[in-house]
Amino acid sequence: MIKPKLSVLDLAPVKKDKTIHQTFQDSLDLARHVENLDFKRFWLAEHHNMASIASSATSVLIGFIANGTSTIRVGSGGVMLPNHSSLVIAEQFGTLESLFPGRIDLGVGRAPGTDGVTARALGRNPAIINEQFPRQIMELQQYFSAENFTAPVRAIPGEDCDIPIYVLGSSTDSAWLAAELGLPYAFAGHFAPQMMDMAFNIYRENYQPGEKFPNPYIIACVNGIAAETDAEAQKLANTLYMAFVNIIRDDRKPFSAPVDDMDAYWNPAEKMHVLNMLRYSFIGGPENVRTQIQNFQERFDVDEIMITSHIYDHEARKNSYSIIRNVMDGL
């Protein structure tokens, strides 16, 4: 069992009592905080048409976070590639890499990051997604290559930029693709844990080594809510639970402060569904979180654990990452 690196997935979560400007300032403050704690990377995820998530213009926000930090890697977790032209993404991330050399990651996924109506507004064609997504990854690799200087279409900036591409997924399809392309793989265990075990096995067993990534590399994204006591962490986690109940109810309102009694908020069917979706979550005081991380790593043995933390109070959220860092250092 290896000791995994620690990273952060941030969705720029919008709270009921804060503006989007304040949301972005909180994201920057969190990035600076985890940079000081020696987290490896800070990723932002593309979502659309959700009043609770402000990371829709992902490339712009990556630039804001990278400009306000100095050493932590910053990237997308991910850019939903079929929403965009491959050339535009190559140019955007080439620009970011040129501004912040050696610090930019490009995680890509095929999901829309939104509902069906908004996906159509983004210009997606669902009939060709499974064909389009792998082709777009290869287009990105071509645009980023030094050899592309003779091509009729070039990404400037972008050409000859060393920007690592990560394949994101929540199913086994993405595992097969990442293995075939010889690219690192990040799995969305924070909301879609059902196929994680199978996906990791497929990826490892079928990995085709490449020049840039000779060995498979796995990032597992999970929820993390740590506090001084188990009771305090469980109370903080109610914000996360309510957010997932709201998704079930198709209610995309901003995140709410934690309630005292979740059973008064969700019904038994919602509770069962939410707890199943969040089965890979580290929630508790330091000792409980330590045990949960150890059990997770003994089972999955991933290279990196990426923590996303939907905690309403900003200082409590920062403290949660500090506790998780201390726990990991003690493993």
From TrEMBL:
Q: What SUPFAM superfamilies does this protein map onto?
A: Bacterial luciferase-like
A GO molecular-function term, please? monooxygenase activity
Which InterPro entries did the record assign?
Answer: Bact_Lucif_Oxidored, CmoO-like, Luciferase-like_dom, Luciferase-like_sf
Record key words, sorted: Monooxygenase, Oxidoreductase
Which residue intervals define the domain Luciferase-like in the entry? 18-298
A single GO CC term for this protein reads: cytosol
Keyword hit for Methyltransferase: no
Q: Which family does it belong to?
A: To bacterial alkanal monooxygenase alpha and beta chains.
* Stated name of the protein: Luciferase-like monooxygenase
